[in-house]
Specification:
Strands 1, 2, 3, 4, 9, 10, 11 and 12 form an 8-stranded antiparallel sheet that branches. The termini are far apart. With 184 residues, the protein is of the alpha+beta class. The chain is elongated and about 85 Å long. Helix content is 16%, strand content 31%. It has one domain: Ribbon (Umud Fragment, subunit A).
Length: 184
């Protein structure tokens, strides 16, 4: 009786494993970059201009695709590049759209009026102390204000925001965790 012993040896191809992992990591980074640059963005809030809705240190998620097929509308919270008239070294602002092109805005007696109708704004920190004579927002522009009206450098200071400056619609607060949730 012949007895033959077969030895099987397994060799691990470390090069192939590293190559496969490398491809996976590069692909994941590529997808993350594409998403970050075109679909969603994460934003840090350094000021209190949107208090009490958004506080200093909040981190927000914005949808960059929100305005690909529709224009911003009143009530939207947006992130945008400030216009030149803002004279700011901050690269992005977060404010609320209060009027769009063709609408007339006025602030009097501590209240916002759009097209002569008083807006109900339960999200304000306090009524504005300033007055703003009626102005009509040009087509292709927005009028934006902070929810902390008396402590916000916004449209009442620097005027109209070109729609092309809008980067994203803010949808969600993801930090701090105890205040996580959708924004309105």
């Amino acid at each position: 009786m012949e007895h033959s012993e077969e030895h099987t040896s397994t060799t691990i191809d470390y090069k192939a494993i590293v190559y496969d992992w490398g491809k996976t990591i590069v692909l994941a980074i590529g997808i993350a970059l594409v998403l970050r640059l075109t679909i969603v963005g994460a934003y840090y809030v350094p000021t209190g201009s949107m208090k009490p809705t958004i506080r200093i240190g909040d981190r927000l998620l914005g949808a960059k695709f929100s305005y690909w097929f529709s224009a911003p509308s009143a009530g939207d919270i947006i992130v945008f590049e400030p216009p030149e008239d803002a004279h700011s070294d901050v690269p992005r602002f977060v404010k609320r759209v209060v009027a769009v092109g063709g609408e007339t805005v006025e602030v009097k007696n501590g209240a916002l009026y759009v097209n002569g109708v008083r807006r109900q704004e339960p999200y304000l920190a306090s009524p504005p102390y300033y007055e703003l004579m009626p102005v009509t927002v040009p087509k292709g522009h927005l009028f934006v204000l902070g929810d902390n009206r008396n402590n916000s450098r916004d449209g009442h200071v620097w005027g109209f925001l070109p729609e092309r400056n809008v980067e994203a619609k803010i949808l969600f607060r993801f930090w701090p965790l105890f205040r996580i949730g959708a924004l309105k």
